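INFO worker-7 received task bundle
INFO bundle size: 2
INFO processing item 0
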Amino acid sequence: MGFAQSGRGANFVRRWRVQSRLKNGKHQTMIASYVASAKSSWFDTTKALVSFLRSPRPNSLRPMTARSKMVTIVWLFVLSALVTAAFALAGLPFLLMSEPTVAGGLSNVIDQPVVTMIVTVVILGPVIEEMMFRGWLIGTWQALIGTTAFVAIFYIATPFAKKFVDAPLFVVQLGITALGLAVVYAIALIQPRPRIKYFDRMFPIFFWAQGVLFGALHFGNLYSESIALPLLMTLPLIVCGWLWGYARVVLGLPAALALHIAYNVPSAVGMAALMAMRA
């Protein structure tokens, strides 16, 4: 008589089946709990975002768990991608009817070597733009001074360093960017952190304006006979400026930087592919 046919074997099989059902039930319970928790987190994050956009306030920074921060960052990234995809789909007919060309500063980036392009699009561009448009957005003297110091260090030191440092320009700029961020961090440690007078009252204007200006900065990156296409490519960046502004105020500057960097990665991959086809 075989093992599976014996009484001992039958008991073993029954125990194994019971244990398997218990494990499967436990896994299903864990998955259901995780899904329910995720849904609740998405809902809470969306509710907080809508509440902020209805009445923007610069003092919205609040303590959050690492998991809550991660959920918020992921959801804001998803929203950024969805908004961009929606406007890209709306602009598809105009893209097919015209022959748009890359223009402005973006054309200069594409003309660079691949490594330089990737560093510029994924690191330098996001860091510089976040500091300029949203680094100061919480309205404290430290944030304003830090932003001013970073911009001054980058744009003054870069041409000076090029004359004395024998290295590719993007390497020099990376070093200067790291120095600028170190200065920003050191200034941010200074206590207390008073907010600029009347900043709270003017904050809604500052918040909406920074998103519009951020999008307008990229308006000239695409040239087309129809203004509709560049406009449709600019509008999602305005919305992203508002989403990342929310991240800056609620989660802090690193969160806004992470969102901008992650958002630019697909663009860098696409430009690298375009450059490879043109080679």
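INFO item 0 finished
INFO processing item 1
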Amino acid sequence: MLIMAILTETEYHYEIGLTYDGAVVPESRKLQDHMDLRYLSWYLRAGSVEVKTEAGTLRVEPGEWVFMDPLTTRSHIFSKDAELISIRFGLNWRGLSFIPPRLAPRVYRSADDAELLRSAEALCAFEAGTDLDCQSLLSTQCLRSRCFSDWLYHWHLTREAMGGVTPISMDHRVLEIMSRIGQNPGLGLIDYEELRRAVGLSKAQVNRIFKTATGLTPRQWSDVHIMKAAVEWIKAEQLSVKEIAAKLHFHDASHFIKWFRKRAGCTPNTWRSRSGRI
């Protein structure tokens, strides 16, 4: 299910991912150095969870949410009695999988917004209770879209209260840089001479305005596109790791695996086996 929102020149595409409301299964209680490409929100009903990222360690207790943006590498440990709501959703904005600025993981108390919990419960209940035979019906898709939109609305309100204000517009030069870097994802040097001809800025100026607008350097933006392409091919299971490495201009499969492990915290094959977990 895709939802599109357009605000002036800014266009967002949302896609609902895995939703879950229940006890944490044993195989998901402990996870080491895993990175998601989607937004992840957990609400603790019972027990606790400790989440470690490069930004620090968070301990989440019953009645609290923890929000994690895409590309956050985390390790977590749930208590044996943990129960939670878990919602993943994807976003695409001009090839980017998150809304700038990307925020560090943060904890939020549900008591501050009962509607956030209500909409999450309604979405999870709908996803769990919808018969597979009914999912293709337009009426079912419209109802699903309504539940998802309700959750997104309250999620955005919460994010904005935490300082994650969505940009309504962006410098056209930044948009041009985004487009040119993301056209052909692959390892290699950023062609600053091409960017200078396109937007009339020096390397230092390109880096400065891009970092200010997106929170990323051009190199990090390129890495996002490489990771996105790699993950899509890994999930499709149609190309070998060696073939993926060649398509993304790595020296060989070993080079690609090392690059992927550094950013995702695991090998491509391990990532594939983890991607469906809480």
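INFO item 1 finished
INFO post-check item 1: The chain has nine helices and ten strands.
INFO post-check item 1: Residues 4-9 have pLDDT under 50 and may be disordered.
INFO worker-7 idle
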